[in-house]
Hints:
14 helices; globular
Amino acid sequence: MSFPENFLWGGATAANQCEGAYLTDGKGLSTADVMTAGDKDTPRRITDGCLPGENYPSHVAIDHYGHFKEDIALFGEMGFKTYRMSINWARIFPNGDDDEPNEAGLAHYDAVFDECHKYGIEPLVTLSHYETPLGLQKYGSWENRKVINFYLNYVKTVFTRYRGKVKYWLTFNEINCMSMSPWMAGGIAPDASEQVRMTAAYHQFLASAQAVQLAHEIDPENKVGMMYGGMFSYPNSCDPADVKANARAGAAFSRRARGAAASLGAFAPRLLARRSLRTPRFALLSCISVSSFFGFAGTAFFAAFGSCFGTGAAAFAAFAGAVSACFFGARWRSSACGCRGISELTIQRRTRWENSVRRSGKSMCNAMSSSSTRGCRQPRRAATSPVCARRWPTTIASCNCAVRCAKPPSRNCATA
């Protein structure tokens, strides 16, 4: 048994986890650079700047910055066909809001991509992988709408610079994790309210949609995807109470509302109302078009959980807290990695993705019908339409609307 000829098999890194060289060649500080090391008994801490005597893993890491040629040569020897990596935003725009990019940073990634192609490795580049420039704290980071424009300036710069060298992109790493890991996901303080976290997530959705449009405008060959963190859990027993509790945990962790919003621009109103959040339901719809939809989806899988959920709210809260705490060095409640978990998570995510696309597509049709002159009273377009086949999963062909394949409303994301 072997992979299909066009299957992209490879490995993945993140700049803050492997590059090191945290101030080399004009790089600025990122949110990762002020997070101390931790272990199962010691939570990681966020410090006010870089303090003497503290251990910051991102400062040295494995020095991939200085040894990328040897590392990529090993990837080639292993038979990699793709290398998922990230560009550190603060290496290109040291403060995040700079007027001009840092040429040394741009040149470094030129060399990295050239080395990948030397070994026949296709780069898959994450634009923001838990590396928000620390300089954006003066604006409140992603809570502030201004950060969208700083991000777009950055992505436009790299899309233009690396045209022809990179064609696979991810806008944000684990875009569904703002609630659980706000500092890593977007430079939002861990004690921030859920309203602040959701506002920051909303701004990332807007930025992501516009980044996809920019990518296609700059190079029609670009393929841009979304990526979110995934876990899979099993009920402790076949007791219906355990099965129901496990289902609740899985639904909460998967953040389906955000997956749908990131890919289609529609938040799930019932989930938001349940948490008393005021994020606009259809605001994203004013800026979406055929060119702003993701071309593929990705999931990070770390572990399959097997825990006793019990029957009460306290047991459920304990599980959710244990999952969140793992990112800050606390003990895992119970975990086991395995092929079965990966397989079942993939099937689950595909089913939920298709259902979310179907529901959100219909919501989008209804919203556009009331907010634009191009309503849903058009003949059904066949799923075999070239535009539909390229941009939309065939599972939403039942949506009685041709707007999804037609010219979008004239409003743009600046008003969303």
